[in-house]
Amino acid sequence: SGAEIKCHKLLLCSTSGFFFRRFIMESVEGAMPEVDLPDLPDDEELRRQVNVQPLFDLVRRYAYSGQSWEALEEHLSENVTGLYALAVLLEAKSLAEAAFAHLERLGLGPIISTRLLYIASLLQGSGEAFSSARERCQEVVRLGFGTAIASPTEAELICKMPFDILISFLEAEDLEVPNEGVILQIARRVLWRRMSRKEQVLSISGARLDAPELLSRAGTFEATILEDLPADFCGDISSFKVAKYAAATAAGEGVDIQDVSMRYPVGSVGPGHSGVVLVQLKAADGEVLVASSLPVDQLQAGPEEVLEAEAYAQGQLAGKISFRWQVSAAPEPPAEAADEGTDEAAPKPRDSSADSALSEEEANRILCAVRFAHLEHKELLEAVKDPVLLEAGAQQQVLTALSSRLSQYEQAGEDAPGAQAPRPSTLREPKAPPPPPSNQAVLPEVPALEATVVPAAISPPETGRVGSGMLSGASTGTPLFPCGACGGRGRMQLKQQEMRWCVRCSKHSSCQHMIWLPSCVMAAAVDGHCAACALRLGAEVRTLTIRVGRQHSVALSKLPGGVDTLRGMCIAGCNDTLSLLGD
Asked: 87-111: b or e for each residue (b if 16 or more CB lie within 10 Å)?
C-alpha cells in the first residue's frame, strides 16, 4: 500500500534473515536505511492467505517482545497460516517455527497441511529453518491424501505442487486413498494443466456484438478453452479451464471488440471433440455482461472465416456476436544456446517452482505412478479414449492392464508378471471418519474463485444471473453434490419433509428430483467429503452422518457392533450402503 513503518534495524535483523541481508550485508554507505518488503508471488491462493500489512504488525510485535510467541497470542486472528507464510518470506526462522507449532497444537490435518506445504514451496523456503515443517506437512498430507483431494481447492493446490513434492505423493506406498482411480484422476489433471501438448493458435478478430447497451459497460473481452465440460452443464467453470488456454484484452470502443489470440489443444477442441471456446464480455468489476460459445465444429486451419454465434446475458438471448477467426501453427520454443566452445546445447535448468511446466520425463513419471492394473474396468475403458492420457502416452499401459486382467482369469486370478501390487490403503474396508477433536484448528473462510455461469448457448438455465456464478434457488442448506436430473443446475440439499429425511434439488420449483433416506433414519447431518465422487463429478461432494432410531431393530441388526450411527455416508453414487437399511 506504500505505507511507511518505522522500526529498529537491530530488532528486525535479529528476527529476520531477509532484513539482516538487506540492512547489513547489502547496505550501501550513505544510503537511507529503508527497505521495501518483498513482493508476494503472483498467486491467487497466496494473496488470499497473506494480508501483508496486518500480519507485518504481528512480525514487529514479535521482534519487539524478544521473539516471544506469547506476546502474539491475544492478537492472533484465525489466519495463523498467513503469518507462517510471511515468516517464511522474511526468513524469520523462530517465528515460522512458533506459528507452525501453534498450528500443530490446534490439530494439523491434511487440509491445512496442504495449504502450508503449497505456500512454503511457492515462497521457496529453504534450509533447516523450514525443512522440518515441510517434512511434517508432507507426512500429514500423504497419510490423509484422500481427505485433502476431496476438497476441490486443496486438490487444485496439490496439482500445482512442485514436481518433487507431487511425485513423492503419487509414488508413495503408504499413500492413503480409497482406490487407484483417485490417483488416475489427480495424475490426469496434473498432465492436463502442466504437460506440453500438441497445440495451435486461435486468433479471434473483428468481433462485433449487436447489443450496444452492453458494450458500453464492457471492460475486458476474454476467450477461454473449456475441456471435459459435461453435456448440459451450467455452473462454476473454474475446474474446466487452465490459464495457458485463456486470453483477455480490453473490450474496445464502439461496436468493435479488440482482437485476441491464444493457444488451444488440438486433441480436445475442434470438429469431433468436446472442447468449448467460451467468449465473455466483462465489466470493470468482473461481472459477466454477455457470454457466447463459439462453433468449434467449424474450427479448422485455413483462411479467415466470418461466423456468427448467439450471445446470452443473464440466461436470456441478448443478440449475436459476429467475428472472424483463424487457426495457425503454434510457434516453436526458442532453441537452447550452445555451450561456449561446443556444438551441444546447454542443458536447460530444471524448474522446481509451483505449477511449473513438466518436462517429457516428468510427465512420463507422473503417468507411471498410476497403477493401471488396479483400476476398475470402466476406468480403463474411459482412459483409453481420454485425449490427455493419450497425448501423455498412456495407451500402452491401459492396454497392458486390460490384457493382464484377461490373463488373471486364465491363470485363476494370479497377478500378471511385473505388475505393481495395489496400495495397502485401497485393500482396506472403508471406515467412517472419526469425529474431529474439540481443539481442531479452525480454518479461515477463504473467498471462492470467481465462478462463471456457462452461457445458455451450452445449456440455457431456467433462472440465473451471469457474472455472479450463483443460480437462485428457494431451498437453503449445505449443498451435497450437483443434481444429475437437471444437469447440475441445482444442488442436492439435506431436508426434512413430511417428518422424514430426504435429499432434494435446490431448484425444487422446476426440478422434482428427490432421494428419500430410509424411514429408520431419525437424525442426519452433513459431515465430511467424498474424494472419489468429487473427482468423478468435478465438484465438491459432501457426506452424511445418520442415526438409526432405537425402535428399528431390523435396521440396527445390520449395523456393525450394535452402533446406531454411521458416519461418512456418500449418496452420490459410489456405494449403496444406505439401501441395506431398507426403505
From this structure: bbbbbbbbbbbbbbebbeeeebbbb
Report residue 527 as a C-alpha cell: 459431515
pTM, entire model: 0.66
Closest CA to 485 of 505, 470, 458: 505
Count the Cβ atoms, other than its own, within 10 Å of residue 249. 15
Give the Cα separation of 156 and 540 in Å (integer): 12
| Contact (CB, 8 A) for 151 and 111 | yes
State pLDDT tens for residues 73-125: 877 766 788 888 888 888 888 898 888 888 888 888 899 899 888 887 887 65
- SS3 state of residue 461: coil
Asked whether 242 and 281 are in contact (CB, 8 A), the reply is no
What pLDDT digit, counting tens, does each position of 307-345 carry? 888 888 877 888 888 888 888 888 876 655 545 555 555
Looking from the CA of 527 toward its CB, the CA atoms found within 13 Å total: 22
Determine which helix (DSSP H) or strand (DSSP E) holds 188, and give its type and residue range: helix 180-194
- Name, in order, each residue with C-beta under 8 angstroms of 512's C-beta and a sequence gap of 6 or more: 485, 505
What 3-state DSSP class applies to 373? helix
Query: Which contiguous run of DSSP H or E holds residue 48?
Result: helix 44-49
